[in-house]
Design brief:
The structure is a single chain. The chain has helices at 36-39, 115-120, 135-138, 273-284; strands at 6-10, 16-18, 22-28, 42-53, 61-67, 70-78, 81-85, 90-93, 98-102, 107-113, 122-132, 143-147, 154-156, 162-168, 170-171, 174-175, 184-191, 196-200, 206-213, 215-218, 225-226, 230-233, 239-244, 248-255, 263-265, 268-270. With 293 residues, it is mainly beta. The strands form 6 sheets. A 7-stranded antiparallel beta sheet has the order 1-22-19-24-17-14-13, with no helix packed on it. Strands 2-3-4-11-6-9-12 form a 7-stranded antiparallel beta sheet. It binds manganese (II) ion.
Length: 293
């Protein structure tokens, strides 16, 4: 077993609001050299750590906006999120649910707290990831995959150490729920105190984890890693092993890098500036369809 050395540990980031419904810490792209290319195919990661939203009759969130060239993946842990898009897809996910939206050639969508959750208020916790698409797939048809907690395969760890939810890719012999265009492993690990979990991914993959709650030790690394810390591994070795110091939730990410140029502007991520300019023209001329506020 060859351990993956740790390249970087990013401490908690100052939260900011996306719309009025998502209070997030941004880890990708961010300072510390963690740009879109370095973490490809994961080109954006926002984490809404547990936060209490008061009751409201007007759900908080983000209004209608476009995307082209990649996928948006929302993982809900507490609270509930509703999605509607111009491809005609919609869905609501509650705790443990995942929305995997392939924007590809372009959609308009809106993302709000689900109405009943908004009316009651409560703790809200979620992750939003952007997963890049290779040039060959950037202009493919939009698609939506929605999963409830029970739709996502579970690997139960021995000795009541916890379990791993396999959103995409593969953990041990279990394949994930979501279809992906390239190799994308995305898991949430739920570990009990002293629970251990081992992971193995190709050295060439870009691999990282985020401690959503709790705290861990990583084999071969001296310092404990508490919640709201993001760990980036070097592109060496295949394996890492974590031990939970308390009840812990971890997001595990590993993907084959897409070795292509990235041109990104706001909600558009393409390969060239000309393609960005085209996306902006297409958006302004209504080619992304329509969606009511
Ligand atoms: Mn969006």
């Amino acid at each position: 077993m060859a351990l993956k050395p740790i390249s970087l540990v990013i401490p908690p980031r100052n939260p900011h609001f996306v719309g009025d419904g998502f209070r997030v810490q941004n880890f990708i792209p961010s300072a510390y050299g963690l740009d879109m290319q370095r973490m490809s195919p994961f080109i954006m990661l926002d984490y809404n750590a547990p936060f209490h939203f008061p009751a409201t009759d007007t759900p908080r969130g983000v209004g209608v906006h476009p995307h082209r060239g990649f996928e948006t993946v929302t993982l809900a842990y507490q609270g509930a999120v509703a999605h509607h898009d111009s491809a005609g897809n919609s869905g609501v996910i509650g705790p443990g649910g995942v929305q995997w939206m392939t924007a590809a050639s372009g959609v308009l969508h809106k993302e709000y707290h689900e109405i009943e959750f908004a009316k009651q208020g409560g703790m809200f916790q979620m992750v939003q990831l952007w997963v890049n698409l290779a040039a060959a797939h950037k202009m493919s048809a939009p698609k939506y995959q929605g999963f409830n907690e029970q739709d996502i395969p579970t690997v139960v760890l021995e000795n009541q150490m916890g379990h791993v939810k396999v959103v995409s890719g593969q953990y041990q012999d279990t394949k994930g729920a979501a279809q992906t265009f390239t190799e994308v492993h995305l898991f949430t690990a739920y570990l009990n105190t002293d629970g251990k979990a081992a992971f193995s991914f190709p050295a060439s993959n870009n691999t990282a984890l985020l401690v959503l709650s709790g705290a861990i030790q990583i084999a071969g690394y001296e310092e404990d890693v508490p919640d709201n810390h993001f760990v980036l591994f070097e592109n060496q070795g295949e394996d890492f092993e974590v031990t939970a110091l308390e009840k812990t939730q971890l997001l595990i990410l590993s993907g084959a890098p897409i070795d292509e140029p990235i041109a990104a502007q706001g909600p558009f991520v393409m390969n060239t500036q000309e393609e960005i300019n085209q996306a902006i023209r297409d958006f302004h001329t209504g080619k992304f369809g329509s969606l009511a506020d």
